């Protein structure tokens, strides 16, 4: 086996990797695991007790919140997969458009998150303790920046 050719081939492939998109993909993948596992543990801590008078109503609201929570978990997983496919394959024909949509999606999530904290009753360090908006804006910004690279170089 000729390792010189292998090394050159690997270097060519590495030059094609879009680093901002790779980082965004890793962040969304990590966020998926934290959101799915850690979030479900946190949700379990506020599940209504079966001993309360209006348990059915509270359980319905809690279940709806849990479904919405894992809807976001799926969004994070799907975004991580799409970003990886864009970076490592030619599965999509128009990568730039998909990246522009994902960038807008994450930036929008970040703005909404920030706004909801802003209009909600305040508590100590609320913008830091609920800092997911920073992660969402970072992911959106990385994708936006990575989209510019797609314009200059074909992935």
Structural features:
155 residues; mainly alpha; 6 helices; 80% helix
Largest sheet: none
- Assess the beta-strand content as a share of residues: under 5%
Total number of domains: 1
Mean pLDDT: 90
Structural class: mainly alpha
| SSE succession | HHHHHH
* Count, helices: 6
Give a structural overview:
- This protein has 155 residues and is mostly helical.
- The chain has one domain.
- 80% of the residues lie in helices and 0% in strands.
- It is built from six helices and no strands.
- The mean pLDDT is 90.
List the helices and strands and how they pair.
Layout lengths: L2 H14 L2 H26 L10 H34 L6 H25 L6 H4 L2 H21 L3
At a glance:
The protein has helices at 3-16, 19-44, 55-88, 95-119, 126-129, 132-152.
């Amino acid at each position: 086996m000729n390792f010189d050719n292998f090394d050159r081939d690997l270097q060519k492939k590495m030059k094609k990797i879009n680093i901002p998109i790779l980082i965004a993909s890793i962040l969304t993948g990590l966020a998926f695991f934290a959101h799915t596992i850690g979030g479900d543990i946190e949700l379990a801590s506020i599940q209504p007790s079966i001993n309360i008078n209006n348990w059915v109503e509270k359980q319905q609201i809690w279940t709806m919140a849990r479904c919405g929570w894992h809807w976001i978990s799926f969004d994070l997983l799907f975004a991580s997969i799409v970003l990886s496919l864009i970076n490592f394959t030619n599965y999509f024909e128009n990568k730039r458009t998909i990246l522009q949509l994902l960038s807008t999606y994450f930036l929008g999530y970040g703005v909404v998150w920030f706004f909801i904290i802003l209009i909600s009753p305040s508590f100590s360090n609320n913008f830091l303790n609920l800092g997911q908006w920073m992660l969402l804006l970072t992911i959106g910004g990385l994708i936006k920046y990575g989209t510019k690279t797609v314009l200059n170089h074909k992935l």
